[in-house]
Amino acid sequence: MDDGRGRLSQPLGESEVFLDFQRRLSRAATVDRSVLVVGERGSGKEIAAARLHYLSPRWQNSLVTVNCAALPPSLIETELFGYEQGAFTGAQKTRKGRFEEAEGGTLFLDEIGLIPLEVQEKILRVVEYGTYERVGSSKTHEANVRIVGATNADLPQLCAEGKFKEDLLDRLSFEVLFLPPLRERGDDILLLANFFAAKMAMECGREEMPVLSDSVQEQLMRYPWPGNVRELKNVVERAVYRSESRLIDHVDFNPFSNPFAKCPPVSLETSSVPVPDGEVALPVAVDVSGQEGVVTDPMDVLPLSDYEGAKERLDVSFLRRALEQAEGNQREAAKLLGLTYDQFRGLYRKLKVKMD
Length: 356
What we know:
alpha/beta, Rossmann fold, Helicase, Ruva Protein, domain 3, Arc Repressor Mutant, subunit A, two-stranded antiparallel sheet
């Protein structure tokens, strides 16, 4: 499940969208053709590539990974194809390339969209003819390698811009697998959160396993997760490490929020916006530093003791507005709020009584 350092080395999830991705991946793994894995940052592309290799007939041979984003463009060619002694200044001895190291196995090219065009031409020759030359040599080497590429870029768009070779894209895209982003995976968020929390507790030497409070679980489900699983791991591990008890009742989504940043002075005014019976109007914080029309966050002036109540009223307000705009269609309302349908349904069920 993990690699000994709290990191996932195997896929973990139970949502339908995630299981469907795994089914398509398992089917593609058995066919000895190139595959592209497309997904947002932090969504698990490297794990998917490893699974493609170990479910394939090549599983007993090497899986070699090249992170193209970590290499200067001028070094990618020598990294992939190797070089001969004396090929350039500093080439004191012959060096194998990654294609040679991956012979009989799989070569995983992460961030494949960053490979320079001249190197793409050489990769295209490997895919088409199974041959290549080391840098500084005219001797032809044969290659028996399966290529798995990964990217978060729009490769067809890069082709249209002349930044990626269409012929190479055609050869590599026998199958294109789109990793679902974490925000579309519903309860997988909590499944993964509990996994990371337990691993962090063990790393901190705690005997009791952490428990995520209802409030924290709700926040995790509502957050859009632009950094996907990698961001979730950081958020949960940080919360466990900072907590002095097994109950995790606070998470920090932005560790760069400066507690010493200066805010302009504010005065309190009562909102004149009419509100439904039984609800309390939120105060409006107006900037009094001399700039007309500048309004600070009204939530800043609410008493801290009203945290749960204010959060609930805000949720009710947003749900009601989204449903009104979507004319009662809950799927459309979920899209307006940037939530998955499962996330919306969970929040709606919880607050339905307050909305009636």
